[in-house]
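Message: I would value a second opinion on how I read folds in token form. Give me a protein, with the fold worked out from its sequence. Write it directly below this note and I will take it from there.
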Amino acid sequence: MSHTEHAAEQQRIIHLLKIAPSYDPQAEIARRTAFLRTHLVQHHRRSLVLGISGGVDSLTAGLLSQAAVQQARAQGHDAQFIAMRLPYGVQKDEEDAQRSLDVIKADVVLTVDIKPAVDAMMASLQAAGLTFETAAQEDFVKGNVKARQRMIAQYAVAGARHGMVIGTDHAAEALMGFFTKFGDGACDLTPLTGLSKRRVRGLAKAFGAPDSLVFKVPTADLESLSPLKPDEAAFGISYDEIDDFLEGKPVSDKAYDVIFKQYRATGHKRELPIDPWSDW
């Protein structure tokens, strides 16, 4: 691919992922908070539900959610923000998750240990005859079960509390397909859509979150064999390069190759279920 073709494909992806050409943190906070409040009120829901992991994405989405329900209550609407802790047993960075909750000051905090459900599912699958090629493959599959079990728990709470589930997907993760399909990729509202990772961090900073949380090394922390593995180690490139790409800046040939390859390979994650007429 030539540099001209790189640039053309880059602009096409930027458009599809809804990246705004300019960025003002306070304006984005106002717009995204209003988005959450409007859908909460218009759909006659009474809660927003979100899992808090200790990373900047859930921190930022949580701050937006808490602000949205406060605005809804000021308008006379019965609303609350329910933050959920969803550890698999004991989470290695639990302290960061608790510090995030302290910053957000959610109306309600519920803690649900997903380990019994995840382990029971894996045991049932193996009892049914499922085998794995390697320990690494088993660990990867189990990581996706963890992500989907967390979403099961959030939807159970949303169902019981007349709520909507908030997702933390943003443009950098969408670009790389770095989420579990029907796991953390399943939700009702995605207030971080169209933001690069540095812009997500910018919103958290504008809310007054501490640098230790805003600039914490991002990790999905789904694989037991490599706990707290940095996202960038999985990507092979940095978030700065991904963000530069999303903001229309030139990146290295290696970054272009990695991004385009990953974007094409994970296209199914960004689509609704495919039917026989999907290609029409």
